[in-house]
Fold this protein.
Amino acid sequence: MEFRVKRAPRIEAEMTVPGDKSISHRAVIIAALSNGVCVLRGFLPSEDCMRTVGALRALGIRIEQPEPEMLIVHGKRRLLTPPPGDIDCGNSGTTMRLLAGLLAGQSFDSRLVGSAALSKRPMERVMTPLRQMGANIVAEGPNDSAPLRITGTNLRGIEYDSPIASAQVKSAVLLAGLLAKGKTTVNEPSITRNHTELMLNYFLVRTVKEEDGGLSIFGDQTPESRDFTIPGDISSAAFWLVAAAAQPGGHLLVRDSGLNDTRTTLLGVLIRMGAQVREAVEDVDQIEPRGTVEITGASLKGTIIQGKEIPQVIDELPILAVAGALASGTTTIRHAEELRVKETDRIAAIAHNLRAMGAQVLELNDGLEIHGRGSLRGARVASFGDHRIAMAFAVAGLFADGETVVQDAQCVQESYPGFAKALDEIMNPKRARMTTPVISSLAPSRDDE
Ligand code: S3P
């Protein structure tokens, strides 16, 4: 499958996006560990999240799916049963790393396998803390990569200072901590998405925020079964938010998006670049804030994205790099070496594709320097098998002269099954569907952070 993209007409649109990927993984895992039936709505039925569902089913959890976005999970009080064979995590790093934490403390053995691309990604980052907890994990691939052979054992709580700002590492340790004896504490070098701890708390598992910022969990707790509705994925909305932001006069409303502040840093970046953004949190009843984002486009200007912002925009960096290429001046991304170990080496992929589209880009070890020229030219670009590269460059095509073809675009199914349809609606709007006023004037307008 490929995307054929032409220049977008003026964007004046209102949309919702599918459920949040990170929250979907966590909701189904924690529901599976709970003491009863949990109905999950707004679940993201993408390839990655369905890998987690498949894994939990293989571990003896009954999960019904009466509608694509609805799961009925029959929690079994943390009792998982030995899988009939290898557990295939596909291309989903979140599935493999979170399950490693969950499986390390079981009374049976398991083996996690994945796609060729996932089998090249680093797993030492979860194996190190889990081994300190007593886990017995062997990486069968070169350089501590998958397949992972896990011999289940009793775990003990530890205090772990994570050298990497990674929500997947934190989550693997917290899930292992739930099964371990005593208290487990994770300290992270800078704040990452907090969905695991919020979801655990929602299911009435006690965690403690330590004075020095660490997060602790006490072992031997069973989550209380509850229903949960997953908000839209702001990392999916990001593609359209940037499209509207980069078009002077563009105007977009995304309703029912997740607005957890460990995930909304991209809005601050877009404000710095000149876009007008309003967000209105409409619901926090179910722990994860959700609401509406409204964005009005402008002639963007370059910015610097670095330091503590990086873990909070890690998945948005491909599309923010495209925004940089459309802006005037230089956009610099630093301290983002983690991009090199995502579904592909995203630094190299972004540089390669932006150059193919006529942008001037310098590849740095830990980021990119992009000299925006305000326009791009259509080209054939590669997805590199990476969903966020495919989607970012489809959006780049909306701003290019001529046609842009994004090859091997089927990978978007990993996180955003409806992307092709949304792209088509942006390119061929039927009519203005906007309802005004959009967000009441009482809603706080984000001025920069
Ligand atoms: C995720 C965490 C991030 C992110 C990934 C999803 C998660 O990875 O890039 O898409 O759901 O925990 P890292 O934790 O490796 O930074």
Notes: The first strand starts at residue 3 and ends at 5. The domain at 21-229 is CATH 3.65.10.10 (UDP-n-acetylglucosamine1-carboxyvinyl-transferase; Chain). The CA atoms of residues 294 and 438 lie 8 Å apart. The chain has two domains: 3-19+231-441, 21-229.
